[in-house]
């Protein structure tokens, strides 16, 4: 990163941290739009400032490419792309599906999940405590890893018992920027096949989201098709599991290594709302690379972006931009306002944002209610990290209570 005029790689996260990369501070100051090499060797424009990142997500000159068709392959031997996931749909197709799906993930609609998430969290805490004769345990294995997947399965109707089938392909796609086209297609096709089989065997009376959407797709005047339901399942697997696991682990680590903030939240549990928003901003929820493609030529900060160029807005950098947040590197659970871009912005803003907020809030509340004296058994800088994917997270959180 010493020479910003030559070919540079996407800034790397410091080992043993979740990020964001410290190098983004320099990019925001000196090169807010920078041509960089992605892990798969492709070149892309990195956008690092808050205002530019926010604008890019809603810029009609930029669109999300099909994951299975980017980078573009020319020639007759190019494999056919997979159908778009909800993350990649564009235009009227995206608007049509979003109109049907969005109400299911509204704040009011998700109220029914509050007691269910709480019951799952309490069950996991009970099991962890019962198995810890000495009052110590690994919070990741006992709580952080199982809870988000159970919440996802309970909400959408994905069979928890099938996790060994769909999770390997899901985890592979989260590192898609470093995969070959063949690897991406193999993982996508496997998830599509799984989702198609799930839809084919779904009980028509099921009241989970997949069941509700499938029933809607069968209505004569519905805007939703069976293929859209399949795409919804694939999307939920890609966006609704590992990102929540990663963020939950990092959020709990942030709290456990900021005892004053943790104590304040324990004493005033009613402030969980602002605390969750700050944890969403502070912890880099999207270390994974968000690829957009320019549909036409345009100029941004004196850089000429051509039609077909890849553009990568970086939320992890935007959420630490001092131009948008006071003392952005400080965790402040009372921060307000807090217009972070952890869930993106614009037409493709994450539809599961409210579910993520609800899940994180309940996870923290139950933990602090049941184990108010919880603390790490090792220093924060001694935590072992899982750095196998861009979604970096603690591999273990050894705690006592």
UniProtKB/TrEMBL annotation:
Signal peptide: none annotated. Gene3D superfamilies: Cytochrome P450. Keywords: Heme, Iron, Metal-binding, Monooxygenase, Oxidoreductase. The keyword DNA repair does not apply. The keyword S-adenosyl-L-methionine does not apply. Transmembrane segments: none annotated. Belongs to the cytochrome P450 family. This is Cytochrome P450. It comes from Nocardia halotolerans.
């Amino acid at each position: 990163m010493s020479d910003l005029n030559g070919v540079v790689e996407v800034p790397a996260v410091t080992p043993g941290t979740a990020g964001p990369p410290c190098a983004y501070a320099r990019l925001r100051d000196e090169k807010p739009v920078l041509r960089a090499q992605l892990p798969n060797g492709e070149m892309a424009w990195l956008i690092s400032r808050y205002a530019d990142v926010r604008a890019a997500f809603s810029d009609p000159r930029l669109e999300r490419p099909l994951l299975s068709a980017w980078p573009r392959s020319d020639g007759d031997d190019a494999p056919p792309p997979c159908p778009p996931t909800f993350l990649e749909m564009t235009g009227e197709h995206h608007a049509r599906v979003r109109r049907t799906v969005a109400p299911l993930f509204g704040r009011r609609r998700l109220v029914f999940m509050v007691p269910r998430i709480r019951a799952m969290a309490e069950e996991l805490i009970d099991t962890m405590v019962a198995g810890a004769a000495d009052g110590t345990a690994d919070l990741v294995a006992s709580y952080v890893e199982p809870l988000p997947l159970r919440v996802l399965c309970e909400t959408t109707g994905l069979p928890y018992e099938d996790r060994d089938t769909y999770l390997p392909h899901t985890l592979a796609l989260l590192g898609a920027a470093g995969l070959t086209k063949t690897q991406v297609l193999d993982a996508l096709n496997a998830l599509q096949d799984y989702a198609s089989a799930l839809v084919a065997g779904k009980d028509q009376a099921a009241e989970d989201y997949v069941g509700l959407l499938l029933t809607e797709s069968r209505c004569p005047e519905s805007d939703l098709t069976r293929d859209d339901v399949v795409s919804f399942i694939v999307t939920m697997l890609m966006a609704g599991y590992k990102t929540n696991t990663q963020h939950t682990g990092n959020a709990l680590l942030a709290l456990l290594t900021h005892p004053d903030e943790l104590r304040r939240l324990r004493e005033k549990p009613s402030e969980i709302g602002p605390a969750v928003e700050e944890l969403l901003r502070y912890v880099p929820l999207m270390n994974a690379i968000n690829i957009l493609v320019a549909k036409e030529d345009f100029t941004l900060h004196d850089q000429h972006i051509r039609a077909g160029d890849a553009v990568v807005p970086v939320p992890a950098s935007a959420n630490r931009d001092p131009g948008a947040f006071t003392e952005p590197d400080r965790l402040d659970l009372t921060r307000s306002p807090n217009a972070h871009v952890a869930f993106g912005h614009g037409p493709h803003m994450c539809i599961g944002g409210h579910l993520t907020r609800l899940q994180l809030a309940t996870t923290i509340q139950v933990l602090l209610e049941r184990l108010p004296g919880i603390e790490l058994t090792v220093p924060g800088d001694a935590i072992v990290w899982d750095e196998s994917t861009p979604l970096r997270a603690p591999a273990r959180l050894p705690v006592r209570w």
